[in-house]
Amino acid sequence: MHITQGTFSYLPEFTDEEISKQIQYAIDQGWAVAVEFTDDPHPRNFLWDMWGLPMFEIEDASAGLYEIKECRKAYPNHYIRATFYDATLGRQTTALQFIVNRPPEEPGFRLERQEDRDRVIRYTLHSYATERPKGERYSNGSGS
User: How far is residue 84's CA from residue 38's CA, in Å, rounded to a whole number?
Assistant: First the structure.
C-alpha cells in the first residue's frame, strides 16, 4: 500500500534534484524548512518526530537536502517528510509538506467496524505498522 499524505502524494517519488527544487521554491517564498520522520504514518499521527530544528534562515536548498539525506542515513526504513512553515503574520501554518522517503514495504491499514448501541456503527483505522513496537516496525529490529 502506497501511503498518500501531503502534497504530491499521487505522483511518482521525487529525485533528490526535484526535492532540491521544491526546497528552493519554499525558501524563495520565505518559508522555514523542517525534516520529520516516523514509523507510524497513521493519518491521525500528524506530529512526527523532528530531525533537528526547523531551518528559518537558510538561503540555499542544499542545506535542507543535506538534512534529508542525514535523516535517511539514520532512519532508512522510516517515513521522512519535508515540511515548510510559513511564519507570515496572519498565516503561521504549514504551507507545503511531502514525503521524501518511505520504507521498502508499506503494510498499510485495515478498517475495523464496531456495532454499538442503538444501531450505531463506528469505524476505526488500524495501522498494521503498530503491531510491532516502535523502532521495530520496518526494520530488522535495530531501530533504523
Answer: 17
What DSSP element (H or E) covers 20? helix 16-28
- Find out whether 109 and 10 touch, Cβ atoms under 8 Å: no
* SS3 at position 104: coil
Task: Look up residue 6 and give its three cell numbers.
Answer: 501531503
The Cα–Cα gap between 108 and 43 comes to 11
The region, left, alpha or beta by phi > 0 then psi within -120 to 50, assigned to residue 140 is alpha
How would you label 83-93 residue by residue, b for 16+ Cβ within 10 Å and e otherwise? bbbbeeeeeee
Hey, which residues does 81 pair with through a beta bridge?
Answer: 36, 99
Q: How far apart are CA 13 and CA 102, in angstroms?
A: 9
Give which of 45, 67, 47, 46 is closest to 55, Cα–Cα: 67
SS3 25: helix
pLDDT for 24-69, tens place per residue?
Answer: 999 999 999 999 999 888 877 888 999 999 999 899 999 999 999 9
